[in-house]
Amino acid sequence: MAEKQIDFDIPVDGSDLLESVQESVRACMQCGTCSGSCANSFAMDFTPRHLWRLAQLGETDEIFNSKTFYLCSACYYCTLRCPRGLKLTEAMSALKRLATARGIKRHRQSSKFYEIFIKTVERYGRVREMEFINRYFFSLKDPLLPLEFVSLGFNLMKKRKIPFQLPILKPVRDQNGKVKYFEGRFERLFRKVEELEAR
Amino acid sequence: MKKKIGSALVVGSGISGIRSALDMAEQGYQVTLIDKAPHLGGVLTQLDYQFPTDHCGMCKMLPLVERDSSSQYCLRKGLFHENIDIMLSTELVAMEGEPGKFQVMLRQEPSMVDQERCIGCGECAGVCPVEVSDLFNAGLTRRKAIYLPIPHNIPNSYVVDMATCTHCGKCEKICPTQAIDFGKEARKKFRILVVDDELIVRDSLKEWLLDEGFEVHMAESGAEALEKMSETHFHLTLLDIKMPGIDGVEVLKRAKEIRPDLPVVMMTAYATVETAVEAMKIGAHDYLMKPFDPDSLMPLIVNLYHDIKGANVQEMEVGSVILAGGFDSYDPFSGKNTYGYGLFPNVVTSIEFERMLSGTGPNPGKLIRPGDGEEVQKIAWLQCVGSRDQQADADFCSSACCMFAVKEALLAKKKSGGKIDTTIFYMDMRTFGKDFQRYRDQAETESGVRFERSRVHSVDTTGKDDGRLRLAYADTAGAIHVEDFDMVVLAAGQRPPSSTQKVAEMCGVELNQWGFCQTEGFSLSRTNNEGVLVGGSFSGLKDISESVIQASSASLEASRIIHSKGGGLSEEPSPETDVRDVSREAPRVLAVICGCGGALSNSVNLDEISNWLEAKASVSEVHIIDSICTQDGWDNLKETLQNNLANRVLIGACMPYVYARKLKELGNSTGLNPQLMEVVDLRTLVFPGGDKENDLLKQEVRTVLSMSIEKLKGMDPLPVTTSKIIQKALVVGGGIAGLTAALAIADHGFEVTLVEKTGELGGNLRTLHRTIEGHSPQELMAKTISRVEKHPLIKTHKDAKIIYSQGYVGNFSTSIEREDGHGETIEHGVTVLATGGREADTKSYSYGESEAILTQQDLEQRLAEGTVAPAGLASVAMIQCVDSREEPRNYCSRICCQSALKNALFLKEQDPGIDIYIFYRDMMSYGFMETYFTQARKAGVIFVPYDVNQKPKVNLENGRPKLSAIDPILGREWVLEPDLLVLSTGIVPGDGLGVAGQFGVTVNQDGFYQEAESRWRPVDFIKEGVFMCGLAHSPRSIKETIAMANAAAQRSLRILNSEKLAAGSVVAEVRHSLCSLCERCIAFCPYEARHYSEDEEMIVVNELMCQGCGSCAAVCPNSASVLHGYSDQQVFGVIDAALENVA
Amino acid sequence: MNYIYYPGCSLEATALEYNLSTQATMGALGAELTELKDWTCCGASAAEATSYLLSMVLAARNLALAEKMDSDADIMIPCSACYLNLRKVEDHVKQDKKLLDKINEALKEEGLEYKGGVRVRHLVDVLVNDFDPESIEPLVKNKLTGLRVATYYGCQALRPYVIYDDPEQPRSLEPLLLAVGAKVHPWEMGAKCCGAALMTTKKDVALELTGTILKAAQGADCIVTICPMCEMNLEAFQESISKTRGEDLRIPVLYLPQLIGLALGLSSEEIKLEMNLAMTDAFKTKIAG
Lengths: 199, 1143, 289
Hints:
The complex is a heterotrimer of chains A (about 200), B (about 1150) and C (about 290).
Chain A: H1 16-25, H2 33-37, H3 48-57, H4 60-65, H5 77-81, H6 88-102, H7 108-124, H8 129-140, H9 145-158, E1 170-173, E2 179-183, H10 187-198
Antiparallel strand pairs in A: 1-2
Helix pairs in contact in A: 1-3, 1-6, 6-7, 7-8
Chain B: E1 3-4, E2 7-11, H1 15-27, E3 30-34, E4 84-87, E5 90-98, E6 101-108, H2 123-127, E7 131-134, E8 141-144, E9 146-147, E10 159-160, H3 170-174, H4 184-187, E11 191-195, H5 199-211, E12 215-219, H6 222-231, E13 236-240, H7 248-258, E14 264-268, H8 273-281, E15 286-289, H9 294-309, E16 312-318, E17 320-323, E18 328-329, E19 347-349, H10 350-357, E20 378-385, H11 401-415, E21 421-426, H12 436-445, E22 450-453, E23 459-461, E24 469-474, E25 480-485, E26 487-492, E27 494-495, H13 500-507, E28 532-534, H14 544-564, E29 571-572, E30 589-594, H15 606-614, E31 619-625, H16 631-642, E32 648-653, H17 659-670, E33 677-681, H18 694-713, E34 722-724, E35 728-732, H19 736-746, E36 751-755, H20 777-790, E37 794-797, E38 800-808, E39 811-818, E40 823-828, E41 830-833, E42 837-839, E43 853-855, H21 856-865, E44 875-879, H22 896-910, E45 915-920, H23 930-938, E46 942-945, E47 953-957, E48 960-967, E49 972-976, E50 980-983, E51 987-989, H24 992-999, E52 1026-1028, H25 1038-1056, E53 1060-1062, E54 1068-1070, H26 1080-1084, ...
Parallel strand pairs in B: 2-3, 2-17, 3-4, 11-12, 11-13, 13-14, 14-15, 17-28, 19-26, 20-21, 20-26, 21-22, 30-31, 30-32, 32-33, 35-36, 35-41, 36-37, 41-52, 43-50, 44-45, 44-50, 45-46
Antiparallel strand pairs in B: 1-29, 5-6, 6-16, 7-8, 9-10, 18-27, 23-24, 24-25, 34-53, 38-39, 39-40, 42-51, 47-48, 48-49, 54-57, 55-56
Chain C: E1 2-5, H1 16-28, E2 32-35, H2 44-50, H3 52-69, E3 74-77, H4 80-95, H5 97-107, E4 119-122, H6 123-130, H7 133-136, E5 148-151, H8 174-179, E6 183-184, H9 198-201, H10 203-216, E7 222-225, H11 228-236, H12 238-245, E8 253-255, H13 256-263, H14 281-288
Parallel strand pairs in C: 1-2, 1-3, 3-4, 5-6, 5-7, 7-8
């Protein structure tokens, strides 16, 4: 029997993605290798096995109420060891995507992090760490959070590790050659990807 | 001696190959048994203990009738049978022809050690400079390049591991019997041509090759080489690739025109390796890589020399081929190796652990940590390593490892007096075999083996330098535990042997997706090539009893092919030899002492011994003949005996076991019963290292000789009795087992009476509509019944029962009564009981109270009838192990898990929208069944494990079942209201008890037939001549039932095939004048060979069934029971002789 | 030996010393690195958490660029996350032709096409497989005798693709370290997770993981890393971890090419030792001696 290819490349807004996650863990036999392997399971409300069990049963709400998948640090131990060869780290990423797309409130901090990160990439092509970190902390609207990282930022600057560079943006001009607006480095590419994903 | 025209080749001499070979040989076929290893026995040579009895017992496979045709000693030590040619270090290299007439080509590795001459003294290994790891001890110990493959073999001769031997020649020089010969003399006539444009290469090669004793010629260019080749005949050419003018490849092409069979080896630098590989495609024999290092190059050249010169290639014709190549173990070091195997010394495989427990293992059976020799206190077994692991390309279960682990844990407990802490980490404990579940339960409750349901993800050290290992695992509820152990044993799964692909191509048989041999339809032994059968683990994953059953099934099918092609049962009359009756003559012993090529004569004064022997009254003559083991020596001995009036022969030499066949020959040519000949081992007494005082040595030699003389003096061999056989069979039971057995026997030309108690044939198959693999049981049933009904040799009685049966092997008489009141008495030589089983009834889970609650069989039947339509179902729940795997029915019914998977997959296929829940304890999807378990999960079937102490609850609400159960992963209760609740109630034996009583055989506590021995004689009853198969033995699938029916038929045929059967020469008899009829001997006889005859009012021994074990003689209070060849007088005489010289 | 060199965003900023020391050390070993022209972000962990296709396209763009330079080249990447992202594309498109088509449709916007050429290789893979420790030994000018090094491989250079080392018990760097005279600190942490990006989103969790690693490193003179994320996590929070745990867990953390560079006689300026956050005078003295 031909193996069904698990395709994670599915529009992120609907329930299709959850179905694809569900599909990808169907063969799970609850052996617990992933839970035992997980570096962060101590901090999780559900262990990975528990999460996959919920996925098998299609318990969407419970899955998204859990913070388990955002605690995945992509160490790939579970993927390495899973006797069923399931791509569990990728399934965790898929859940992160889904949570971002659904705008689930309790995951705001984590999803914002990724969202803003990728926005920086869209604008400049590379990551501008200073801008990214500022925008991230700003977006969280948590006045205390940045404080945790202040000393680090200070340290890094002292070591000249945070370069102050001017953003390289592409001017888009009108017929007269006047600059209409500045286009992000990857704006077109990102739109194209969105279009392809929507297909 | 009778000889069948048919012959068969058995490839692989593990347990399965031995079983098949013995089967065919006992039937009278000529069998060639080959193994590529230098020893017999396969993996079992490494296992001292086998589940479930925790000891061996392999000898129980030895022939029970016609015993004298075969060796009668430990089968792990070796095997000899008149009809079996054993060829070791041998591979099948080509096969042509068609079923019934195959031409096979066998290639035997050249042996540097003459097996006949080697006496196993070990001097060679003492001087061998090479040390490599010893695979016999799973790499835990080291051995030399000349070594004993198996320490306990008899005879045990050394072999040379050519891959590592450096050909230093030290062993050749030291061997006391000149058994080792590397052929240096012959090398002088082996001409090698070296072609290279570089002088320095030519010169150094010349020097090295001359040192090795070859004849060497040189050419400095391609042109010169070609010229020389056309003039002289070379045996080997070493040819440089890169040369100015005509290059090596061109020379090769032209050389092949001049002498197509000339072996050419290319010499290449790193840069031209690809050219060298190309050259091999156009006929080069091999290539060697520059720069050369003489220490590694010369052994390569010498191996090439042996390759070209020494290989023994043999062609023969056989009727069929049985492939029994066994399995390889998964190497946990390969792949991702998350368990640190090979990195942490205290992580071992189960086979290594097995060696560690063995007395011939690395620490003579003492269980210590391999890393540091510390005492072991705590061991973890990790199951499913390289099994049930798709990342290791194994969507299958290796079937045997679970029981292996339980056995090993119990052995560890036993060895340590219960002190060692043992834990088995598992996913599903697959205790699906007969009596496995109780064994597992007792391990837990009585011996304290801990069972932890968790797959451990990896093995770490503790971070301290204490050699201990740390396991972290998640329990079912998700809690993470960290625990330290002294040792971790990995249940390494099974893989097809590396040569499988090659063998399969050669024999034209298909492999399955995992590389094991694919079998056809409902057969476990038939391949797509009709004449090629498969036995044992070669088709995947079996324990011993299943291997033995399948091996016999394979030999049955092989025999059927040979028979159907006309090669079967015509016998060549064997010349009857007249045996001299010497019973009234006074003993006259001819004593012959072998000088053992000087080894004995140098240590002991043989003249003195000779004089001492001659002085004995019973000794008529003494001869000293050197090297009796050689043909010359043997001819000399034969001549001496022919010109002699002696009526006893004593041979003082070495290795008595080797002489069994030779003595028989000697008996035939001289007319003296081989029972009157005795070989005594003198050689071992003077083994090196003993350094005994001369007087002590002399005394020992005298003692063993005296003992043998005493034994010979008292020898009074009776003519071997033979018993007439009624060449007909009775088969009881008309299900697929009985039908298959009846056909198998009848196809060999014997009459069969088949008795079925109901009005219809087919048994359980009538209710089965598909198998999980997609085969049709209905088709199988229709075809089989039609064949049975049309078969001229099968007479079927339906609606008939057994009234009475009596008799013994070869001579049974059974009365049957039909429903219409008519009866009949049948005479038959063998009986096959196939009384079947049925799905168990139940009162659990409200069964019978609702239309919506069914058994698996009900469901299958209704789906077939159409009274249950998948379209109308929204959800289905199934509960496994209903009333099973707990007392009083504490056994696994083995087929319910596959039934559930089959029905679930079928429903999902019909309508993927149906929600299906399977509540289970351990899914018993053993072997390739595992892949269906995976498929069911992929299809969306939800599996919920439950604990036997917390079963699902079922209530009826408005006549509908409502089920509640705990999901242990989520830790919450499930409540379902399924449209159907399907119960897997398991299998109970059919009407076994009544029939068993009629035939005087026994059943176990669950009512299944009790086999003689669960592993080695799985289809035999203790009572010889009565066999069992099918569900009456234990629950099993259709395939497995058919294999077992074939095995039962095969066991029958070895008896039916002869008009008369001979008993062994060592049998018991009763001296009736001394017998008090206490009947103790009857109770103690393990073979049911004795009974009290009411007619004669005496104890009668059935000599065919008696195996000469001597239990009766030992237990008899009056010495009325006597074992031939071991009379009291004789034994006391031997004891006296043994003590005579002890000061 | 020639490689296309992909530094990745971190190596332009927080891991600048990794970048410079990689170039200097590889140069000293005789390798020629050509930086990938116009390279862009690999997508980091953020792309995958946002869009699967985007994560593929961002990484593939760099592969396409490299392919344009030389389709038979090895592209060498020091950052483990970048390495994995590019490696993943290399692997996924092999199994999924449709994915490749989609990627290329997106890449058209950039005027690029990816055909599946170039080999993605981690710096460690290159160091341990393309350079023989025996040939490195004669190049050592400043033998690191007695220096006890805890080798930290992290996750993504080892998993899920098992290419050049045991993903559970990695040891590939040991011959190299022995060749430069260092000793290997025996520990079990080499392949464990440091918490990665959780340091930003779930700091307490990441600190727990990092703390465990630092604790196990006690007894070593330094930790060696091969990933900017690991380096940052292990370096930057030593003070606060020491405070919470109530024991001094401070230890210098160096990038592998920094340490190798030192042994090859590069100056601490050349390997940018001053940029490391957790550097001790004791360590400086030790390597100077």
